[in-house]
């Protein structure tokens, strides 16, 4: 590996880690095209590296966010059961629907969700609507406003159903489940955006762990590429978590909605 | 209406606190192994053992405790430890929820753990 490739891998990992930790998405959407197109790394190795990157982002994010209590661990565990069940059933869906039709279908859905998120910011003047009549209460301190945020979770079964679908289709679409789960937790379950991204970040690592072992078993993990990228991702994730603490929820929602629009367009153009 | 204004205390957030500590430790040890492996490979490329391009879990453990201590094994050890951090977080969550006596979530986390172990065992058998 040349010095230039090493620097590019570290930098690519850093950027993917920053955005992944900030938005609770893992950063694979950015990292895989970068590894394949810029560094000419074979697709299977790129995917394996991206999975390692997701785990690194998730572990750093979870360690830092759990301490701040931004992660709703109970909800995360509940949704994880649905996600893993969905992933196991993924093969069945693949037999009935083509990946192209699915990509077009979910492209439209993600576009619609992004518009709803932006509309809600405008409608509520950037203020988050928190519910106190749900279950599984959560509390964290928002560093951007200096306030303690109290909330409860609504519509857990619906959020579980969406997680099941997310786990089911994310493998087929080549995207992480976070893009479905963050809006579900925020819009449907009424969780503050910072808690939704932190909880998603906590979950994506657990979901990715099983795939990581499968790629490892198949011999697709290049230790030089994956280690270098992982170190960049670890540093980037620390930065991403620090940024997410400081920025206002409204800005975080904007950035997330724009990322969602970008992924939606990418899915449509496939 | 549930009481949302609960006051945090040490026993109430045992699961979160323990998981955070275990994850921090796992990430730092894993990063140190990867850094050490990369440095060793750069300083002494002759130490790289070609056969360990992709060892199995058993093979990796064998290499770690053998005389042939090469940079690639160190990097793989760091990567595999990182791959284990999500499992560690679920295990500590199970214990943390048990300390909190939240048996419902001990059950929920245990299901997540079993699903994960099942998938990993499957991947190891796949390797043969």
Structure description:
The complex is a heterodimer of chains A (270) and B (128). Helices cover 76% and strands 6% of the residues of chain A. With 270 residues, chain A is mainly α. Chain A has one domain. Chain A has a two-stranded antiparallel sheet. In chain A, α2 packs antiparallel against α3. With 128 residues, chain B is mainly α. Chain B has one domain. The chains are: A mainly alpha (270), B mainly alpha (128). The interface between A and B is large, with 53 and 57 residues.
Task: Label this structure with key terms.
heterodimer; A: 270 residues; mainly alpha; two-stranded antiparallel sheet; 11 helices; 76% helix; 6% strand; B: 128 residues; 4 helices
Strand content of chain A: 5-15%
The helix content of chain A is: over 70%
Largest interface: A-B, 53 and 57 residues
* N to C succession of SSEs of chain B: HHHH
Q: How many helical elements of chain A?
A: 11
Structural class of the secondary structure composition of chain B?
mainly alpha
The arrangement of helices and strands of chain A along the chain is: HHHHHHEEHHHHH
Question: Poorly predicted ranges of chain B (pLDDT <50, ≥5 residues)?
Answer: 1-10
Radius of gyration of chain B: 19 Å
Q: Layout of helices and strands, plus pairs?
A:
The complex is a heterodimer of chains A (270) and B (128).
Chain A: H1 3-23, H2 28-38, H3 43-68, H4 73-88, H5 90-96, H6 99-123, E1 135-142, E2 147-153, H7 156-173, H8 178-188, H9 193-217, H10 223-246, H11 249-268
Antiparallel strand pairs in A: 1-2
Chain B: H1 14-43, H2 57-64, H3 71-99, H4 103-127
Helix pairs in contact in B: 1-3, 2-3, 3-4
Q: How would you sum up this structure in a few lines?
A:
The complex is a heterodimer of chains A (270) and B (128). Chain A is mainly alpha-helical and 270 residues long.
